[in-house]
Write a structure and sequence with these properties.
This protein has 402 residues and is of the alpha+beta class. It has helices at 18-50, 55-74, 76-85, 93-102, 108-115, 120-131, 140-148, 157-174, 182-200, 213-223, 232-244, 253-256, 378-392; strands at residues 267-282, 288-300, 303-307, 318-321, 325-330, 339-344, 353-355, 363-365, 371-374. The chain starts with 17 loop residues before the first helix and ends in a 10-residue tail after the last helix.
């Protein structure tokens, strides 16, 4: 007899135990589901790539995406509905999960609230969202750290329960040899959070000192059947991991401090400028000179955004709030003409943010004392300075603007 999944046309003995066939069938179901989720992610990415084919259409599309993200951050359910109604998101749980998992500029609090909803569609989204995490061969504490960094846990107990149940199910699917069942993973996951609170949050302790290793083991023994109790080494590693490295939950600022602008925003000016880098390039003949890079700049919502190009305006390389900054012409730069400069009116640095290298969704403060740009012409420089002054609402004395 020939069975699908056991090779191409391979003849298999008809006396194969049914439990082996069932396990293989379940494994194939999981693999098919993972393929569907990867396809959903690819389709999201392809829809964005296709929208890049025309600059004007791309500009309109980006504004719609930004408006949709604003809607989502304000009201997650209404935001998803808006994205679907405007043709930006397919009305499937797979595509919605891919959007929440991949898209930048979303409020982590809004993501957590949306994932915790109880209706069937949201539960399917949560399941797909959890499946997009790769926990294979990971310690459960490290897997939980990764999972809980992608959103902020909502405050409602039932929402937390659903979200943690999805984590436990996914972790068990990735590592069925470590724990006896998904239910045990679920119990251990909650025990980890309680242990973290006991060890690192004095104000939340119900009495007495922090949870000792012995008490932690006893608490697990009270909730996990003896024949399903994790190996003692695993339990000890969990305790030591949390004791030595607090399980930290993301702040809202980690993923949503980046301003996003939508179709209702007023763009005062946008265009190409050369931006001077903060580091110096070493010359082959000796000496150093500051490097310049061409960037796409947009003035909107009281901020100056800059991007890699005008085709990537959903992913800012930096954001400069136009508060407490001065704007001036610079004519003494020997490498570029038509220069202008942003400088701090208070303090010694211009307030700015940029993506943290290697950390998706995290933004860090900039450290520039000035931001120097070069325009395309004298008229272009004057236009930029005029727009920046309007946006900043800070007029400097004329003798300092010349």
């Amino acid at each position: 007899m020939t069975l699908n999944g056991f090779g191409n046309g391979t003849v298999v003995d008809s006396h194969i135990p049914m439990d082996v066939i069932r396990r293989r069938k379940e494994q194939l179901k999981k693999e098919i589901q993972e393929i569907r989720e990867k396809i959903a992610q690819c389709e999201i990415e392809m829809s964005m790539i296709q929208s890049h084919s025309n600059d004007d259409r791309r500009h309109s599309n980006v504004k719609q995406w930004s408006a949709g993200k604003k809607h989502f951050n304000d009201n997650p359910k209404e935001g998803i509905r808006w994205l679907i109604e405007n043709g930006l998101l397919q009305n499937t749980s797979e595509h919605t999960a891919a959007f929440l998992f991949n898209e930048t500029g979303l409020s982590k609090r809004a993501i957590g609230d949306y994932l915790g909803e109880k209706d069937d569609f949201h539960i399917e989204v949560l399941k797909h969202f959890a499946h997009m995490h790769d926990f294979f061969s990971m310690d459960i504490v490290d897997a939980l750290r990764r999972y809980l960094f992608t959103f902020i846990l909502p405050g409602e107990a039932q929402k937390i329960d659903r979200i943690m149940e999805a984590f436990a199910q996914r972790y068990y699917e990735c590592n069925p040899h470590i724990y006896a069942s998904a239910e045990v993973c679920y119990i251990v996951s909650f025990a980890i959070i309680m242990l973290n609170t006991s060890l690192h949050n004095k104000s939340a302790r119900l009495g007495g000192g922090p949870l000792t290793y012995e008490k932690f083991v006893n608490s697990l023994n009270e909730t996990v059947a003896r024949n399903q109790m994790p190996d003692q080494t695993i339990v000890k590693n969990i305790y030591d991991n949390i004791k030595n490295n607090e399980l930290k939950f993301p702040d809202e600022d980690v993923n949503s401090t980046m301003p996003v602008f939508g179709s209702d925003s007023t763009v005062l000016k946008e265009g190409w400028l050369w931006k001077q880098d903060g580091y110096r390039m070493k010359l082959s003949l000796g000496g150093r000179v500051k490097n310049w890079k061409r960037r796409w700049f947009v003035i909107t919502d009281g901020c100056l955004f800059y991007f890699e190009s005008n085709l990537e305006v959903d992913s800012p390389r930096g954001v400069i709030p136009l508060v407490d900054v001065g704007i001036r012409e610079i004519d003494d730069d020997r490498t570029k003409q038509f220069c202008l400069e942003l400088f701090p009116l208070t303090g010694d640095k211009v307030k700015a943010s940029k993506p943290a290298p290697g950390e998706i969704g995290k933004w860090i403060d900039g450290h520039h004392t000035v931001y120097r740009m070069s325009a395309l012409s004298e008229d272009d420089r004057k236009d930029w300075i005029r727009a920046l002054r309007i946006a900043s609402q800070n007029q400097l004395p004329k003798q300092r603007l010349s």
